[in-house]
Design brief:
The protein is an alpha/beta fold. It is built from 15 helices and 13 strands.
């Protein structure tokens, strides 16, 4: 029986500190250079050298100001603030590579769909079909206030609005220009056939628009669609629209129920279980030997910031953890933030979770313990995630940058390839074709296909 090959992405953000907070202070870390284009180009070249499927750039609009009722702790720690636009470095990274994919986060709540459609089509052209979009609706009140809202729209309402948002984008990407609209006939001075280009319109509860898509059809038309919502409503949304879904659970056993639900919901939507690729967030610390890896872990730990991690987690859940004592159980409350993050430590936990238990998990300044060991041990653990958790691959959080990615590429990737668990080379075609086969366009089972002319 042929072994399932995993997909692997480097997970990053256009900022100093991402996921594993405090590690920018390590003497070998170069993330202070995040404002330099050379930093991102070097990262892309390393990822492509390791045949990684892509670099996924997260984003957040707003600051984490729930912990201690202030943005001060994250500003001091550089925890995802300052944060620059994630789309800007992609053109340069794509120019420096040939096959590497790119996933980029853009928030539907604050970005007009007509302009986002053009921006993503432009990137799909410039990357030759290697762009993906991570669909998020946001969870920070600070972002809502900064964008002129009195407060963040209610959780399920944000997803209802996102459904309309996607419908507009599908119309623009898939229906505004026919496949044969662009003729480029110099002899007749005809660039495009007007009879094959049309305005699309939408009149709904949240959006109204009418217009011609400003970009000619790009290689994928609709970019590869990523999503990371883990609430029940988020899972419904992912099962309907997403092609790759990111999850964050502490173990393969914890991942399996989520994976099963996502696949079942995709089937109920008529797409089939294999329409989704489920990717788990992991942190890897690898050395040539287990002893070397453990030594590296202890070295890294001296720079990790539990305080910054608590500030991040407080914003994610909407709960100010500074108000809890070390052994106080975290209470289920009604918040408008990340519902699944709070549920995981309250109503879905098998026993009450205390603040001490949470901080004990924050080994490297994040909420999840890292995978630590030799290349063979790390490969064993990743294989367990696939076989026991049912995931299709991983989002690799950075630790000390770019050291952690180079270590993974140089030490772990060859072992995975030798075992047949990871590709030896890239497939041909646009990003969607590399991952799913076919033509590179969304399949007929996807709801976007209903809008094709």
């Amino acid at each position: 029986m042929q072994q399932k090959q995993m997909q692997i992405y480097a997970f990053d953000m256009n900022c100093v500190g991402h996921i594993n907070h405090g590690l920018w202070t390590h003497p070998r870390d170069r993330s202070l250079h995040y404002t330099d284009l050379d930093y991102w180009v070097d990262l892309a070249r390393t990822a492509e050298r390791g045949k990684l499927d892509g670099i996924f750039l997260a984003d957040i609009v707003g600051v984490y100001d729930v912990y201690k009722g202030s943005p001060g702790p994250v500003i001091e720690a550089g925890a995802q603030i300052p944060v620059n636009d994630p789309l800007m470095p992609i053109s340069a990274m794509a120019y420096a590579t040939q096959n590497l994919g790119f996933g980029v986060t853009v928030n539907t709540t604050y970005e007009p769909p007509f302009l986002l459609a053009r921006r993503m089509s432009t990137l799909d052209h410039l990357t030759k079909g290697r762009i993906g979009w991570n669909i998020v609706t946001g969870y920070l009140d600070s972002a809502a206030r900064a964008m002129g809202f009195e407060q963040l729209p209610e959780h399920d309402q944000r997803y209802d609005a996102a459904e309309e948002y996607l419908e507009i984008l599908y119309k623009l990407w898939e229906a505004s220009w026919d496949d044969g609209a662009v003729v480029c006939d110099k002899s007749r001075a005809v660039f495009a056939d007007p009879s094959k280009v049309r305005a699309v319109s939408h009149a709904g509860k949240y959006y109204r628009m009418e217009g011609i898509h400003l970009s000619q059809p790009s290689p994928q038309r609709t970019p590869l669609l990523f999503q990371a919502g883990a609430s029940a409503r988020g899972q419904d949304f992912a099962a309907r629209h997403a092609e790759c879904v990111f999850i964050a659970t502490p173990s393969p056993q914890a991942a399996k129920p989520t994976v099963d639900v996502l696949r079942r919901k995709a089937e109920l939507n008529g797409r089939g279980a294999e329409a989704l690729r489920v990717l788990s967030l992991v942190t890897v610390v690898v050395g040539r030997t287990e002893k070397e890896a453990q030594g590296k872990l202890e070295d890294y730990r001296r720079h990790a910031s539990v305080e910054a991690s608590l500030a991040h987690y407080s914003a994610s859940t909407g709960v100010d953890f500074s108000k809890y004592g070390p052994d106080d159980p975290i209470e289920q409350t009604s918040t408008n933030a990340n519902q699944s993050a709070l549920a995981a430590i309250t109503k879905e936990a098998s026993r009450p979770v205390t603040l001490r238990q949470i901080t004990d998990q924050m080994v490297l300044g994040s909420r999840m313990k890292p995978i630590v060991g030799s290349p063979e041990q790390v490969a064993d653990r990743l294989a367990e995630w696939v076989s026991q958790g049912g995931v299709d691959g991983f989002n690799l959080a950075r630790t000390v940058a770019p050291e952690s990615l180079r270590d993974f590429v140089d030490l772990v990737v060859p072992v995975l390839q030798e075992r047949g668990l990871f590709k030896a080379d890239y497939a041909e075609g646009p990003l969607r074709q590399k991952l799913f086969g076919g033509s590179g366009r969304l399949p007929s089972s996807h709801p976007a296909a209903a809008f094709r002319t």
